[in-house]
Amino acid sequence: MHRLNACEDRLPDIPRHQPSPPASSAERSPTPASSGLEALLTSKEASQILKIHPKVLERMAKRGEVPALKVGKFWRYRATTLDAWINSRLQSERQPCRMPTSF
């Protein structure tokens, strides 16, 4: 497989939605998770993945720099959307991972 960028080694593993084990019939109820929806990450969880402070991530979300959803007063993030956002940033010429140096 061809590598696009040297920074791919430093990408964090983003947790994907894992279906929960089947519950007994008494415990089963129709929930969003059982319908195949992806769980949303909190600012703290997403910031741990991106290795930045939660407040920095929230400021980026407010400015529209990172894909996010505001639910009430809280910001939420999809892991798959963050992964796609990271990949698009790595493939972008605008912000290279390594700056060329001249020695």
Q: List low-confidence stretches.
A: 1-8, 24-30
Report the top-level CATH class of the domain at 37-90: Alpha Beta
Kindly identify the CATH topology of the domain at 37-90.
Answer: Molybdopterin biosynthesis moea protein, domain 2
Helix count from the secondary structure assignment:
3
Let me know the largest β-sheet: 3 strands, antiparallel
- What's the overall geometry? globular
Helical proportion?
Answer: 25-40%
> How many strand units?
3
- Main-sheet strand order equals 1-3-2
Mean pLDDT: 76
Task: Work out the strand percent.
Answer: 5-15%
**Computed Rg:** 17 Å
Terminus-to-terminus distance: 32 Å
Name given to the CATH architecture of the domain at 37-90: Alpha-Beta Complex
Helix-strand sequence = EHHEEH
Structural class: alpha+beta
Characterise the protein shown here:
With 103 residues, the protein is an alpha+beta fold. It has a domain at 37-90: Molybdopterin biosynthesis moea protein, domain 2 (Alpha-Beta Complex). It is built from three helices and three strands; from the N terminus they run βααββα. A three-stranded antiparallel β-sheet has the order 1-3-2. Helix 1 (43-50) crosses helix 2 (54-62). It is globular. It starts with 39 loop residues before the first strand and ends in a 12-residue tail after the last helix.
